[in-house]
Design a protein that fits this description.
Elements: H1 3-11, E1 24-30, H2 33-36, H3 46-62, E2 66-72, E3 75-80, H4 96-117, E4 128-134, H5 138-165, H6 171-179, H7 183-192, H8 202-206, E5 208-212, E6 218-222, H9 230-237
Antiparallel strand pairs: 1-3, 1-4, 2-3, 2-5, 5-6
Helix pairs in contact: 3-4, 5-6, 5-7, 5-9
């Protein structure tokens, strides 16, 4: 075997592709953001959320076939479509390595510039990583969004309880205390501290979505409770 052919054979391992003609989920996460955002307001910082939403919008604009974006905490989920018709060409030919590298690069670059422009105090440079996977159909894409939102609701409740206890306990004890509480007990704990979780920022509890408006322009709105508004969200995905 020629030297060139041998090394091309090695590089073939980076050319793996995901299944074509099905919805594609791209999940972009901040790397170690709990540390680099330690100077920001907790449990929820509006400035940080604005930066994350802007990054989500940038991804929706740049990712070919993007139909909806959802963001919460330091996570961004993009639903990409290349299954609308038989002639639709997949972005980067559905090459996993290329899709992951380009989306993480877009997120890192935009988030860095945006956070710098608004003077957000970060402990170090932000980085994002991406993972992607195919979903069999639109119903499962919708269920995936339901699942992520449910996780966010649970996490936002946990964060609220944890940071509310730091005036009384150290970090380790506060974390352990919250861990041992049921969801109802967490709500009752917050009520005892005069905190109404249902009145906290909507984006903190339910996340934000990026959709196309009537002029085919990307727009960011508060995300409704997806499990109770599935027809609405499905229309956006389509």
């Amino acid at each position: 075997m020629k030297l060139k052919d041998r090394f091309e054979q090695y590089s073939d391992f980076s050319n793996q592709k995901v299944l074509n003609k099905v919805p594609l989920i791209i999940n972009i996460n901040g790397k170690g953001f709990h540390k680099i955002t330690s100077l920001l307001d907790k449990p929820f910082d509006l400035t940080f959320n604005d930066c994350l939403e802007s990054t989500m919008k940038k991804l929706c604009v740049e990712v070919e076939g993007a139909s909806i974006g959802y963001c919460y905490n330091d996570n961004i989920i993009i639903v990409s479509r290349n299954d609308q018709n038989i002639n639709t060409i997949p972005w980067f030919n559905n090459n996993i390595q290329k899709l992951c590298s380009i989306t993480s690069s877009i997120a890192t670059s935009h988030f860095t510039k945006y956070s710098s422009n608004i003077g957000m105090q970060l402990m170090s440079e932000p980085y994002f990583y991406s993972k992607l996977y195919p979903i069999p159909n639109l119903s499962e894409a919708l269920n995936m969004l339901v699942c992520y939102q449910q996780l966010n609701i649970i996490n936002s409740l946990n964060f609220t309880c944890y940071y509310s206890l730091l005036n009384k306990y150290n970090k380790v004890k506060a974390k352990e205390f919250v861990k041992n509480l049921s969801q109802i007990e967490k709500i009752e704990l917050l009520e005892s501290l005069n905190i109404d979780f249902s009145l906290m920022n909507h984006k903190f509890r339910f996340g934000s979505i990026c959709i196309k408006d009537e002029n085919n322009k990307w727009d960011i709105i508060n995300c409704p409770l997806i499990s109770q508004n599935q027809d609405l969200i499905k229309n956006y995905i389509i």
